[in-house]
Amino acid sequence: MNINEMINENLIKVGLKAKTKEEAIKELSQLLYANNKIKNVKDFEKDVLARERQMSTVFEDGIVMPHAKSNSVNEASVAIGISKEGIDCNSVDGKKSRVFFVIAMPHNSNDLHVKTLSEITSKLLDDSFKQTLFSAKNKGEVYNLFNEKKKDTDKKRKDGRFLIGVTGCPVGVAHTYIAANALKKYAEEMGVDIKVETNGSVGVENSPTKSEIDKAQAIIIACDRQIDLDRFNGKRVIFAGTKEAINRPKKLIEKALNGDVPVYSSSGKRAYSNNDFSKEKTGLYKYLMNGVSYMIPFVVIGGLLIAISLAIGGKPTPEGLQIPEGSFWNQILNVGVVGFKLMIPILAGYIAYAIGDTPALAPGMIGGWIANDGSFYNAAAGTGFIGAIIAGFIVGYIVKWIKSWSFPKIIQPLVPIMIIPILGSLAIALLFIFVIGAPIASLMDSLVNMLTSLSSGSLVVIGIVIGLMQGFDMGGPFGKVAFMFSVGLIANGQTQFMGAQACAIPVAPLGMAIATFVGRKMKLFNEEELANGKAALAMGLVGISEGAIPFAASDPLAVIPANMIGSAVACVLGFLFGITNNVAHGGPIVAFLGAINNPLLALLAMLIGSLVTAFITIFMKKLISKKRKESVSAA
What compartments host this protein (predicted)? Predict the structure, then answer.
């Protein structure tokens, strides 16, 4: 089935009444329902909007392509709507969206939706086709336009030049195939033969063979995700993002052909040689997000298992919430603890992997473990997720540097599997133990001394300090120092400090849960973050502040300040409300179990702090998003 078989005149509407993207999706969904293509409008809309939150399908030049695989779809089909006035859909180029393609696919359609997207985007790359579509006066003109056979007048005779392209966007759908079609279209116009591999949601397709790689003059990597690069060792390679391939395919192809392209070496030097197209997607943020994406399952698994075991099997004791040794829930707790222990090394390991490839993975994980375990460098607490991020970057660049060395041929097979991992592991271990470790241990002592000196002064001031420390790293060294300080005072009969900190502990995860719930309609969070928000809610209820770590790691500028301010507000309110706590734990669960003297006021302090965190996060995300759009428009 091709696109022409999925479109008929009854599925086309010229003159949409909608004023928003959501209204346009609803209007075209009604059209699909009226033609018996879907059986439930609300369910289909829900699936489309969920997919849209995952990654927007608002493209440049006035095109929007919402799509979904749904159980509500009776038959694969495409509804087309044209808005004469245009609809503001927050397009990157600032233009109003004019044409909407709502693509409905049965849930068992395999890769049909991907092929449909590819066909549509291939047609839309033709400027004359696009302008004719925009100016269509009725649905008959639109239908005839899609059924016209493409003329081959623009094709040039192939002159023997051969290139390879590789495309892949983070989600692996629309941008992957738009970029591939753009490269193919302009290569054809220039008389150049090109083979483009797509790394999409259905897997890797159209991969070049060894002989084709040998034959290619150059390789264009227009990709925003990890791919196998070793196969291109010794070839001239251009690194770019999918957006560069979509917006400037001709320049990429011309650059690939003119010979001014660096040779890629898997042993190290991935030089970019004035490649202006590669700067956007090869920075630190890409490496960071690679680590965060692998860490998230460990946070969710560990956090939820610990939350469930504490909620059901936990009992308040002076040492905290305790689960009887050998009980069923104690075993579940232990499994959750394993998940939490692994999340930090995983974060560091996959940041390092993104920079230095496979040889960096093991030393990155080892570095993350050492960073998180203060006993290696005589510190009261490890460095948490912040230290893991630092370790990951250090290892990644150390490995990348080592890969640039010239090794004797006799030992080259051992380099990636033995020599580099050993050297990388020793390097990060020695750095943390003998260089980074001492200042960290000294900092921990200084923080304890600071808290001790402040404890005899203003409760508001000490509340602000403890709250800021708790919210900064969510279970990391700053939060642990504050926590252990409060716990130590319980033994001396001073329980107000633990009471105030108990109010601050759940603020970060609860604040993120509220932010994702409120901000989902503002499209500030993707589908994965919305799911993480639900997990953070469960963790926050039982006082597991680590539930906010994925948010803080992926967007530290917006999230960490919000966590700190909200936690400080909750902690100060805890002091002002006179909250006391006999148990070394925090969160609503402590109030529910009766360990807090005034549970209602404690819950109020937690709620207010969480709301402050949520709304500061939303404000910061909107502000950062606006500035990014302005910078893109200016460029």
Answer: Cell inner membrane; Cytoplasm
d(CA 617, CA 518): 11
Is residue 368 predicted with pLDDT exceeding 80?
yes
* Strands 315-317 and 162-168, sheet pairing: unpaired
Residue in 283, 291, 394 with CA at minimum distance from that of residue 343: 291
Q: Is 67 among the catalytic positions?
A: yes
Kindly report the CA angle at 423 between 422 and 425, in degrees rounded to 5? Answer: 65
Mark whether 96 and 183 lie in a shared domain. no
Cβ–Cβ under 8 Å, residues 477 and 444: yes
pLDDT of 585 reads 82
Give yes or no: residues 130 and 172 share one domain. no
Task: Answer with the one of 252, 278, 304 that is the final residue of a domain.
Answer: 278
Which of 243, 278, 313 is where one domain is finished? 278
Report the pLDDT value the prediction gives residue 273, as an integer from 0 to 100: 34
- From residue 211, alpha-carbon distances to 158, 194, 203, 208, 266 in Å are 19, 14, 22, 8, 19
Q: Can 113 be counted among the known catalytic residues?
A: no
Top-confidence residue, 340 or 55:
340
If one compares 268 and 78, the residue with the highest pLDDT of the two is 78
Catalytic residue chosen out of the listed positions 169, 223, 503, 571:
169
Cα–Cα distance between 143 and 150 in angstroms, integer?
14
Cα–Cα distances (Å) from 586 to 466, 504, 532, 565, in that order, read 13, 8, 21, 18
- Domain of 168, in residue numbers: 162-278
Same domain, 131 and 21: yes
Name, in order, each residue with C-beta under 8 angstroms of 553's C-beta and a sequence gap of 6 or more.
Answer: 288, 291, 292, 295, 347, 385, 389
Token pair belonging to 435 = 């260089």
Specify the range with the lowest mean pLDDT, choosing from 144-158, 392-406, 555-569.
144-158
Same structural domain, 524 and 417: no
Looking up residue 61, the CATH number of its domain turns out to be: 3.40.930.10
- Give yes or no for residue 184 having a pLDDT over 80: yes
Q: Which band of pLDDT confidence, cut at 50, 70 and 90, is reported for residue 404?
A: confident
Considering the candidates 67, 113, 175, 585, report the single residue annotated as catalytic.
Answer: 67
